[in-house]
Amino acid sequence: MYNKDSVADMQKRVDDFISQFEEGYFSPLSMLARFTEEIGELAREVNHVYGEKPKKATEEENTIEAELGDLLFVLISFANSQNIQLNKVFDQAMTKIETRDKNRWTKKE
């Protein structure tokens, strides 16, 4: 069983799914193309919800949440294919951001 709140468990769940197929993970360039495709789909949804472009009557229902989920799956797949532990790189990124940007914006009182 997986802990749905653990990034390591999410990575394992994706790996368990993909590892059952002969094809395995896509190449890095294909992963980047998939990532870009999913970003575009997210942008389209955000534009429908917050932008000036309403959804066509013929378009399928979709949500920002669903597109973020798809994007997360591709991100995890890409990280797995490169043997990158997302919890470690997230910690490194947050430490950098918390240091670099700690005085960048107005803090709440």
Automatic annotation (TrEMBL):
<dbReference type="InterPro" id="IPR047046">
    <property type="entry name" value="YpjD/YvdC"/>
</dbReference>
<dbReference type="InterPro" id="IPR004518">
    <property type="entry name" value="MazG-like_dom"/>
</dbReference>
<dbReference type="Pfam" id="PF03819">
    <property type="entry name" value="MazG"/>
</dbReference>
<dbReference type="InterPro" id="IPR012359">
    <property type="entry name" value="MazG-related_YpjD"/>
</dbReference>
<feature type="domain" description="NTP pyrophosphohydrolase MazG-like">
    <location>
        <begin position="26"/>
        <end position="105"/>
    </location>
</feature>
<protein>
    <submittedName>
        <fullName>Nucleotide pyrophosphohydrolase</fullName>
    </submittedName>
</protein>
